[in-house]
Fold this sequence. Notes:
- The complex is a heterodimer of chains A (371) and B (397).
- With 371 residues, chain A is an alpha+beta fold.
- Chain A has helices at residues 7-23, 26-34, 40-48, 67-79, 86-99, 102-114, 216-250, 264-289, 295-324, 335-346, 352-362, and strands spanning 119-121, 138-142, 145-156, 163-170, 173-180, 186-188, 191-192, 198-213, 254-255, 258-259.
- In chain A, strand 9 (254-255) and strand 10 (258-259) form a beta hairpin.
- In chain A, helix 4 (67-79) packs across helix 7 (216-250) and helix 5 (86-99) runs antiparallel to helix 6.
- Chain A starts with 6 loop residues before the first helix and ends in a 9-residue tail after the last helix.
- Chain B has 397 residues and is α+β, with helices and mostly antiparallel strands.
- Chain B folds into three domains: 7-89, no CATH class; 124-237, Butyryl-CoA Dehydrogenase, subunit A, domain 2 (Beta Barrel); 249-396, Butyryl-CoA Dehydrogenase, subunit A, domain 3.
- Helices cover 46% and strands 14% of the residues of chain B.
- Chain B has twelve helices and eight strands.
- Chain B has helices at residues 7-23, 26-33, 40-53, 71-84, 92-104, 107-119, 237-245, 255-271, 278-306, 312-337, 367-374, 384-396, and strands spanning 124-127, 143-149, 152-161, 172-178, 189-195, 201-206, 215-226, 230-231.
- In chain B, the strands form two sheets. A four-stranded mixed β-sheet of chain B has the order 1-4-5-8. Chain B has a four-stranded antiparallel β-sheet with strand order 2-3-7-6, with no helix packed on it.
- In chain B, a hairpin with an 8-residue loop joins strand 6 and strand 7.
- At the A-B interface, helix 7, helix 8, helix 9 and helix 11 of A face helix 8, helix 9, helix 10 and helix 12 of B.
Amino acid sequence: MDFDFSGDQEQLRDAVRKWVDKGYSFDRRRSITAAGGFDRAAYKELAELGLTGLYVNDADGGMGMGPTEGMVMMEELGRGIVLEPLPQALIAGGVLGGYAPAELKDTWLPRLTSGDALIVLAHQERALRYKLAACATAAMHSADGWTVSGTKNVVPVADYADAFIVPAMADGKLALFLVERTASGVSASGYLTQDGGRAGDLTLEAASAQLITLDGQTALEHAVDIGIAATCAEAVGVMDKTLLITTDYMNTRKQFGVVIATFQALRHRVADMKMQLELGRSMSFYASLKLNAPAPERRAALARAKVQLGQSMRFVGQQAVQLHGGIAVTDEYIASHYFKKLTQLEMTFGDTLHHLGEVSNRMQDTAGVFA
Amino acid sequence: MDLSFTPDEQAFREEIRAWVKANLPDDIAHKVHNALRLTRDDMQRWAKILGKKGWLGHGWTKEFGGPGWNAVQKHLFEEECALAGAPRVVPFGPVMVAPVIMAFGNKEQQERFLPGIASGEVWWSQGYSEPGAGSDLASLKCKAERVSDELGDHFVVNGQKTWTTLGQYGEWIFCLVRTSSEGKPQTGISFLLIDMTSPGVSVRPIKLLDGECEVNEVWFDNVKVPAENLIGEENKGWTYAKYLLGHERTNIADVNRTKRELERLKRIAKTEGVWDDARFRDQIALLEVDVVALEMLVLRVLSAEKSGKNSLDIAGLLKIRGSEIQQRYSELMMLAAGPYSLPFIEESMEAGWQGDFPGEVTANAPLASTYFNMRKTTIYGGSNEVQRNIVAQTVLG
């Protein structure tokens, strides 16, 4: 049992932090949002650091790293509320590397690593809410190969993505496909999301698709769990910075002739924020350290983690706004952007109530970190 | 980063588990698992069993006859004891006064007091709080005047202590006493060991809201205490008391016992028919997440201690969270039984009681009492509001 980071992991952290501090200023982020919420150039810069290929094996040209490194990277990106969707790169690396046939890997993994291909998971459907077991999108097989038909919503950077990982029903069973955006029958819309990033809806009309795996549920659950762990880690970074911004402000802002950090009613809120941050960080560790566990153990652990992080995020975000006062509800000041990111992350890959239901359904007689 | 225990740690756990299974008396474990009333004899019996094995002072270094375990081993020992249904070790001797005697007592004091603590023979109590000194402990007034006469060099103690846990059984008490009113309140306090059989010491149990007498008032009326019972230097007692607070930080979260009680909550919920009520079960699920998160927090502190890193900024959170969770599980247990937690039949708290408990589930008898009792957890050991002040200090300066 050991919660220290290795030298390599600390180096990775430093590299990402340096990029965020130097390369991703609040002004740059603001201009990215103004231009639509995604910047290919920024994404390429992250790829040049090797980050889009973090989960891609060395043999396929990637970094061949694991969940702890994924966590370190996401914490740092969270601190900078980076809009470019790196959790999607982790999912693509994990799913294609773990489940796709060789020819798909050979085509896409090097492009994922280089940043030339943006591959995103398109699984959200109107009637599904956060359920993963089945969907309305259907797949058909013919002599010419597979086609899929259906609609997916709130797909990250849909109209910029090069390929989608798409769950669809094949002969009554969930399967996973790769669909290229330029394929016939594919159309993608685009819009801003509340955090200043970008998403869109994906419409598939007999779009030609390549099969990743017929055991789609196993792969999709794994994909979502990679996403949950990444989101938890990202949330820790966002919360960490949110607390820092808030305490800096409290030690500067004066009312009644003194800095507001002197008021006990406010100090206790800060103590509670620290509590939620550290409980969240603990469960983010837990999520990443369980990401390679057998599926039932992994699923249970990731649901627990998201329940904690969901609560922590909402609390830290709301308290940060309250402690700042009016300034934090302006668009101009940075704290509101951290708050909006936290709000969005709670609803990403399943919200708190959804995962509480998952925990509730899975409860056993005994419970703890090791059970 | 690694979440698993090492093979050595696993083997250590197995060894502890086997020993506890073989040595913990069934009747005591039964009482603990069902929250029934523990007698002085129950607590003392288990303490002596541990003492004989050399594990009552399980946090002690080898130098003082302890096992010399590291933070993780101590945690594993506590976990195995808790899950098996061992009573909590009464901490005042082995966990609280012993480390102070080791760190600041002289050789004579160590030789005189530590063996009785290690064996579980001598029952120690704590004399800190006073009617006028709760959260503001440094304002304490219980006075010790140094006097030299034909009987030798000694202190004369006058004043009152209160909230003395299990003090009705106490044979010795370690006290913070005022030896000077000069300067800041903290600088005039001394750390004194007092024989409770001394003339002038009187103890009155305080009946609490659950009907039990867990704490006491202790009066000192011209009690003569030999000067050799002073630990360290006069007027340095506050420093020694603070040193104590830095000890056994993860223990205060009590996560091991909480894991056991979460299991019990699930059993109660099943018996009472609320396990299949999604609204109720979700509350248990929420608590389960809280418990796992607390355990992770504890493991982080342990890992930091094992590798010699400072973890003070998160250790301060453990008391707050641990106590809130203790209150929550006791609350849910009571709510699970609903009206069947309401009959107050004191005899039903005794093991082996053969009467008819309303609703026929005798296990419901202690639930409301435990809930009421647990309100203490956010008050004692530095109230949670005081703890928040400390946490805020680390964050805001």
